[in-house]
Amino acid sequence: MNNIVVSGYLGKEARTKVVTARGKEQFVVNFNLAVNDGKKNGEKQTIWISVVGWGSFFEGVSEYLKKGTYVMVTGRAGLEAARDDYPARLQVTAQNIELGPSNKQEDAEEEEETTSDVAEEDAAF
Fold first, then answer.
1. Does residue 105 carry a pLDDT above 70?
2. Distances (CA, A) of 88 to 38, 45, 68
3. What is the DSSP string of 87-121?
4. Whether the Cβ atoms of residue 66 and residue 46 lie closer than 8 Å to each other
5. Cα–chain center distance at 20
6. Where in the chain does DSSP place strands (E)?
7. CATH of the domain at 67
8. Cβ distance 123 to 117 under 8 Å?
9. How many Å is the maximal CA-CA distance in the chain?
């Protein structure tokens, strides 16, 4: 059985497109996931994993796949073919994606803005 579960942060915004396969148009989303692999010699090790998702589910979720968003991906493991100067690397064909909080700094800024809005509303009464 070929199942894999990985979680990490998007390195940049997901790339989306519509392709024609077997005479049908299909939505496809691609992104790179930074996965923390613990520490080696006292330094954090990051593994970059290529993720691809096909179909309407990924069309709906793609708008939330921004840089810094934390996601958990379940799918099938495979190898992405080597290109130019890049060696072959792990690629996950996603079957499901669960979204988590985005970049901690962005979350803190949003929370601060929300708190300010609430304080202003309370002050009016």
1. no
2. 23, 19, 24
3. PPEEEEEEEEEEE----HHHHHHHHHHHHHHHHHH
4. no
5. 24
6. 4-10, 15-21, 24-40, 43-54, 70-80, 89-99
7. 2.40.50.140
8. no
9. 64
Average pLDDT, rounded, for the chain: 81
Q: Which domain holds residue 118?
A: 4-123
**What are the backbone angles phi and psi of residue 31, rounded to the nearest 5°?**
-160, 165
Euclidean distance between the first and final Cα of the chain, in Å? Answer: 61
Total domain count, the chain = 1
Say whether 14 sits in a helix, a strand or coil.
coil
Cα distances (angstroms) measured from residue 43 to each of 36, 50, 68: 11, 23, 21
Secondary structure class of 60 (helix, strand, coil) = helix
pLDDT tens across 73-86, in order?
Answer: 999 999 888 888 77
Name 59's Cβ contacts closer than 8 Å, sequence gap at least 6: 16, 27, 29
CA distance 109 to 95: 32
pTM of the model: 0.73
Residues 99 and 71: beta-carbon distance below 8 Å: yes
